[in-house]
Amino acid sequence: MVSQIDHVAAPSEAPDQPRPIRWRRGRVIALAVTVGVVAAGIPTGIAYAADIAHGVRVLGVDVGGRSTAEAAALLRNRLAARLAAPVQARVGDSVVTFAAADAGLTLDAEATARRAARTRPAPWTAVFGSRTVEPVVSLDLEKLTRVLQPHVGAQGTPPVWPAIRFDGRTPVTVAPQAGRGLDRHAAAATVRAGWLRRARIDLPIADVTPATTAADLDKLKTGLAEPAVAHPVTLTVDGRDVEITPEAIAASLTIESDADGRVVPRVDPTKLKTVLAKAFAAVQTPATDASFTLHNGQPTPVPDAPGRAVDVDAAARALLDVLPRPAPRRITAGTVPVPAARTAQALRDLGVVELVSTFTTKFLPGQNRNKNIKLVADLARGTVVPAGGTFSLNRLTGDRTLAKGYVMAPVIDGGKIKNAPGGGISQFATTAFNAGYYAGMVDVEHRPHSYHFDRYPAVIEATTIYPELDMAWRNDSPHAILMDTQWTETSVTVSLFGTKRFDITTEYGPKSGITAPRSITLAETDCNKTDGIPGFRQDAWRVFKQNGVELKRERFSWNYRAEPKFTCVPVADTTVPPPTR
Q1: Main-chain phi, psi angles of 79, to 5 degrees
Q2: Number of domains in the chain
Q3: Is-contact 511 540, C-beta < 8 A?
Q4: Rounded to an integer, what is the distance from CA 473 to the centroid of its chain?
Q5: Which residue, 61, 112, 484, 575, shows the most beta carbons closer than 10 Å to its own?
Q6: Range of the structural domain that residue 443 is part of
Q7: Is 73 helix (H, G, I), strand (E, B) or coil?
Q8: Are 77 and 90 in contact (CB under 8 A)?
Q9: pLDDT per residue over 300-324, tens digit each?
Q10: Residue 482 is assigned to a structural domain of this protein
Q11: pLDDT higher than threshold 60 for residue 5
């Protein structure tokens, strides 16, 4: 009898015999699952292989499968023409064309690429479809409003913006009224969405209603404006008190609308500073600019010193907070540093290191004209003329008036010697002209006197009449020029310090066309007698040298008239002989 075990073949027996059906079905199922998982992962791997998934587009540009840097560069490149193109908009019936920059319109390519990277479409959509991402666009609302608003024109009716204004200490309400025009926030949203997409952006004329209502305004009047000017406010600055009067409060409190008709009360720091300028001066320390002093004939910078000023921004905020309150009202504010406008280091950087030129003219002691010369010399002392800058005597002095301290002294007026405020300043003009002349400065404007006075060098001298005739020269050197002035009872000196460039001398030509003075008798209340001065014509050459080598020369010429010999007689004398011709 045969055992059943004999019917089970060993593994080595009959290797081509089929396996049981249950074993084959399990392997097939396992294989199918594996293939399915792998197949499902294929689109995910493809879609998310880079920073930005496949299938992501911005303004029609496919940025999928790229890094954010690559996508940003691609957007700038593909959209360059659209970004540079003029923007066309229609405001109601009016068409306006403007540059994107005029409205502050910009595409932030990097931010747009980062937004695209955060977009994750479904894997199969990324492989076989697409997903659109909105660009990151910004604009300047104020600039856009300035571009569009003029095109509203007669199509709209301007609204009345609410406000409270002061008539002295009395608050006066300006009631709001709606109008029609451009809704600037809606317009901005439309422009932002339509730019780079549409050839023309349509913006309707719409109702414009101020944000602050009449009821709001009434509350502001009773709750702020009226109590604000009912009593003064005491401001304490570093332990010292300053009174802010109701008048000063009314002048600095601004209750006006913003661009949307929303009333925003504020104390204007600039206005507060202006109305309290005198009061603030008592609790402030002005900054001291660096200056030059002469030490052993050399210019030496004197250090600057910072000042302290009332912190008007803090004072304005504190003042606004207490204005609705009853008296007594007190606020505090500190001080802030005020830097000097000119520092010692800035002076060192100017290149003012040595004496460049100096010139002196003489005058007789005890004359009125000497006071005017000294006054202008004091005014000019310490003047710094920067590289490329111009020294102008008329700009320095302005109108020479008695109120400024000038006195009456002789001037040439219509060929006669008359008295006027500031007479004698031409002596300083001549001295400063020659200092600039010998420093190599460029002659901007000057004119010699009509008559030649021997206290001045011939031809290279200058007169001045405010405002018609100036004495001015330009500093064409790469370094600044410092002007120093000194006077005595018989002379005035102008010295210029900087970096010396030239050695300058003057060569004169001979006098020609010499004319003798006439004798003229004058019966005038304002009469100055003269001895008469011959007239003549003469040339002078300014010679520029460096290291003994002549570089160039400039010609100056002038034709002096003969000054008459004026004789003065009393006005009441009717026997005055006719003028001698």
Answers
A1: -100, 10
A2: 2
A3: no
A4: 26
A5: 112
A6: 350-568
A7: helix
A8: no
A9: 889 999 999 999 999 999 999 999 9
A10: yes
A11: no
